[in-house]
Amino acid sequence: MPQPQTSIWGTILTCVEIGLNIYALQAERDQGIVLDADYAKKALSENAFQLGKERDGHVYFDDVKSIVPTYELAKQGAITHPELHAVAENPEQLVTEGHYFAPEYFGDFPPPHDDHGQAYPQQQTWDNGVFLVERPQGMQLAVHQTIAEHVLSDMALMHAAGHESYWFYPLNDCAIPIYELSASHPGVLAKVINEDSLLHTLCDDYPSYVGIHNLHTEEWGHIFDRPAPSSLFLQAQLDEAAGRNNEDIPLSPSSYSAQSQEFQTMQTHEPTDAFYEPSDGMEW
Questions:
Q1: Across the chain, where does the E strand assignment appear?
Q2: pLDDT (tens digit, 9 = 90+) per residue, 97-137?
Q3: What is the 8-class DSSP label of residue 56?
Q4: Which residue has the higher pLDDT, 239 or 254?
Q5: Alpha-carbon span 236 to 28, nearest angstrom
Q6: Which DSSP state fits 192?
Q7: In this structure, are residues 104 and 42 in contact, taking their beta carbons and an 8 Å threshold?
Q8: Bridging pattern class, strands 166-170 and 138-144
Q9: What are the structural domain ranges in the chain?
Q10: How far apart are CA 97 and CA 70, in angstroms?
């Protein structure tokens, strides 16, 4: 079948044949890889084929999932466009990105390991590629470097220490990556037990970050300080603090009256008393 003349993503802007019956297509609403349907059924595995959308004799893989057919077709030598020569020569280079974009096909990121290639003695999986691990330096947040490239800011990376394919953050210096990861990784958001503490920690310990963040976001997404203890927004931080002083530090997040047990977003607002709302008449 010839290349598509229409697409499920709206008007076609560009369409380049990168292999026989294989097209790189850019349209109004999305872009990705489009294959002739009959060819796709023969060339792709069932798992890969299921990630596409079949319509009018073609199968569409959006910008995120297109890594899957690209990987399988490159392994078959079916990708022939000169600009994709590096991928055609070494399709395995796509696997790491595949863990991020298509974990249902490539699987999750492998967990971090110590210098001897062994799993850390205590290791909690928070999300795909995000872990809490016990290292010789203490409990630390571990974030796969591929995730960091796509999600974390330069200021977040400034506070990280790298080891193999992971970035590590001590619990007393992880507020920025926790804040940023919570917007895209539900497993990380679920670990934030005290949003007020997280926001206060950002304002108190990283004022430059807060200033830059607020400068480049709408007002509804600004970070504002909250009355709360610093660096007690994770259960692991509470546990460490309790170990240092069992009497002075509450053991349960419910001890904080200002804390909300459920919150839908990490975007914050000014306290309501910061706004003046005029009444119908003057008060004397």
A1: 12-19, 22-27, 31-36, 53-55, 58-62, 123-127, 130-135, 138-144, 161-163, 166-170
A2: 999 999 999 999 999 999 888 889 889 999 999 999 999 98
A3: T
A4: 239
A5: 46
A6: B
A7: no
A8: antiparallel
A9: 12-106, 123-272
A10: 12
Q: State mean pLDDT over 178-191.
A: 97
Task: Give phi and psi for 276, each to the nearest 5.
Answer: -105, 120
> First and final CA of the chain: distance in angstroms?
81
Give the DSSP H/E element, type plus range, for residue 157: helix 154-157
Helices (H), 11-66: 37-43, 46-49
Beta bridge partners of 167: 143, 162
Backbone angles phi, psi at 216, to 5 degrees: -110, 15
CA–CA separation, 148 and 151 (whole Å): 5
The residue written with tokens 């940023």 in the block is: 180
Computed on alpha carbons and rounded to an integer, the radius of gyration of the chain in Å comes to 24
